Amino acid sequence: MDILELRERILKGEDLHTEFKERITDNEDLAKSIVGFANTDGGQIILGVSDDGDIIGVENVDETIRRIDDVAYNRCEPPISVIIETVIDNDKTVIIINVPKGDQRPYRTSSGNYYIRSANRFRLASREELLRLFQATESIYYDETTIYKATLKDLDNDAFRLFMKEYMNIEVSEEMLINYMKNLKILSKDEKPTLAGILFLVQILNSLFQQLKWLEHIFRVLIFLHHHWTKRKSQVEFLKL
């Protein structure tokens, strides 16, 4: 966002997708705003602007950005990935927090409250609204759900490369590994394993295990046939004597 876009947005005032904040008063209040936008349709929190649209600016910008990131990750459940921008207008820094519509709704604050955005304000979701959010989540692909407690190390990269080579005829280099995993929804955008990734690689390992068992079975049959044929051949040669 540039200065002109910022000024135009401020002139339009607060609405369903826009909230002004002079400063972060407390972490719970910021978490409420982030959760509310994520549970509704996404939106922007413009920090350093009064409710009347006056640009106040933000002090300690770097510290504020770290605090925003901490709140989004540790004070929202599940964690929410936000995109943070800064715009300088007349030597005053404004921070724009872009909150996407969440794909793991409903979200709540760490204190257990579910919020939604209604017109130009946030409020607690009613029981019916909360049920609708849960019902809406059922239409989302659960296999793309991020497993936040898992890491890339939990995935078997060698098994993934073997799958790509054997079934898709693609040699995956170390540099392209992450990109391929993201494209196949094995990793989320923030490089965390998804449910699909965990299940997918388990299935690969099981498949390979079953193949090995089948090969072992074939090997045993071949050995049996070899011994049987050798014995049969010996008997025939004995009869010729």
Structure description:
α2 (27-39) packs across α3. This protein has 7 helices and 8 strands; from the N terminus they run αβαβαββββββαααα. The protein has helices at 3-12, 27-39, 61-74, 127-137, 157-168, 177-183, 195-240; strands at residues 18-21, 43-47, 76-77, 83-89, 92-99, 108-109, 115-118, 121-124. The protein folds into 2 domains: 3-139, Methyltransferase, Cobalt-precorrin-4 Transmethylase, Domain 2; 152-240. It is an alpha+beta fold and 241 residues long. The relative contact order is 0.10. The model has no long low-confidence stretch (mean pLDDT 83). The strands form 3 sheets. Strands 1-2-5-4 form a 4-stranded mixed β-sheet, sandwiched between helices. A two-stranded antiparallel sheet has the order 3-6.
Unreliable segments of 5+ consecutive residues:
none
What is the CATH T-level topology of the largest domain? Methyltransferase, Cobalt-precorrin-4 Transmethylase, Domain 2
Strand content: 5-15%
- Principal-axis shape equals globular
Structural class: alpha+beta
**Which class of the largest domain in CATH terms?**
Alpha Beta
Question: Over all CA atoms, what is the radius of gyration?
Answer: 29 Å
Count of runs of 4 or more consecutive helical residues: 7
Number of separate strands: 8
The CATH H-level superfamily of the largest domain is Schlafen, AAA domain
Protein name: DNA-binding domain-containing protein
Domain Schlafen AlbA-2: 14-121
Keywords: DNA-binding
GO molecular function: DNA binding
